[in-house]
Amino acid sequence: MIKVLLAQILFKPAIIERELDWIGEPGIYDYSLGNSFASMVKGNIIEDDGMCSEFREKYLEYFKHRLIQIVLWAIDREADLLVFPEYSIPYQCLSVY
User: Fold this and answer.
1) What domain range is 61 assigned to?
2) b/e string for 65-90 if b means 16 or more Cβ within 10 A?
3) Count: domains in the chain
């Protein structure tokens, strides 16, 4: 018998869609609310001072740590397969082990 664990996690989509880099956005973005943070910086509406890239790096650092915790949890439960939601794992986090 194969033991499969499904990871239900809160995550930012690891995709770039339109002009929006989801991981670099400081919040959960909703197109109906207006412009993304990145597009407001590009349009000189607000100043960035590296906030998007800093936020992206902090999120990736957090997510790598969280991913390791989840994988170790699955190993402790002797899982044969661990399944994550689509677009949940940024490619930068694929080599954490």
Assistant:
1) 4-93
2) eebeeeeeebeeeebeebeeeeebbb
3) 1
Cα pseudo-dihedral 14, 38, 32, 63, rounded to 10: 30
Question: Does the pLDDT value for residue 28 go beyond 60?
Answer: no
- Report the distance separating Cα 40 and Cα 46, nearest Å: 6
pTM of the model: 0.74
Q: How far apart are CA 83 and CA 70, in angstroms?
A: 11
Pull the structure tokens for residue 71.
Answer: 């994988």
Task: Give mean pLDDT, residues 30-34.
Answer: 56
Task: Please report which confidence band the pLDDT of residue 22 belongs to, taking 50, 70 and 90 as the band edges.
Answer: confident
Tokens of 26: 């400081």
